[in-house]
Write a structure and sequence with these properties.
10 helices, 213 residues, mainly alpha
Length: 213
């Protein structure tokens, strides 16, 4: 198997940023404000596991949506891109993460909801993974490569949360806010690319259909 190392690292970084790591770190630190370090690390492991499982399920089985609901891939690209763009804009404009008490409204254990879903794996991330997973079983080699990349990116989020207190001391609240906004700008750019790809393909199909008449 001949895999370009640079390309592999690029995909992992792309997926890692797609999971909005610095925003989730801000939320995680706020949520764990009253926890001791041991409880925080256990929660980080559960969040990382939940994110890994959720992203892989969406990637592998999301194609069922296209098959049974009659949604074209390019139409979904546009829809997912718009949602992802709104998420990125919200990250850029937001100045404070949700409060810990708001997190507690979802469940007594916030690892899966809301920390993993929808804070880390939100609508925009889900839409992007669904687009990536389209035809996942048609190219086993490429799919294996993307599955490994998704797994590594998800685990990295868990590792980052595991050392959340140390990172908070290093980056401070202002540093996390800046990194979160930079991630949001990247996500907006990625969303624009996804939208343009979907719209371009649909326009090309329309032109070809008109030309074929």
């Amino acid at each position: 198997m001949n895999v370009n190392i640079g390309s592999a690292i690029s995909v992992v970084i792309k997926l890692f940023l797609l999971l909005t790591p610095f925003f989730i770190l801000s939320v995680f630190v706020t949520t764990c404000a009253d926890m001791d370090e041991r409880a925080q690390k256990k929660l980080a492991i559960r969040v990382g596991t939940a994110v890994t499982v959720a992203t892989l399920i969406i990637y592998l089985f999301g194609a069922i949506i296209f098959k049974y609901l009659g949604i074209s891939l390019d139409a979904f690209r546009i829809g997912a891109g718009l949602v992802l763009m709104l998420s990125g804009i919200d990250m850029v404009r937001s100045s404070t993460p949700p409060k810990a008490r708001d997190m507690g409204e979802f469940s007594s254990d916030p690892a899966v909801v809301p920390l993993a879903i929808p804070t880390t794996v939100g609508p925009g991330t889900i839409g992007t993974l669904l687009v990536m997973g389209q035809g996942a079983f048609d190219n086993p080699l490429n799919s294996l490569f993307e599955i490994i990349a998704i797994t590594i990116a998800s685990i990295l989020v868990g590792v980052m949360l595991y050392f959340g207190r140390h990172l908070q001391r290093i980056l401070k609240t202002k540093g996390l806010d800046i990194l979160s906004k930079l991630t949001g700008m990247y996500i907006v750019a990625l969303a624009a690319q996804i939208i343009f790809t979907g719209a371009g393909n649909m326009i090309a199909m329309a032109v070809n259909a008109i030309g074929g008449k």
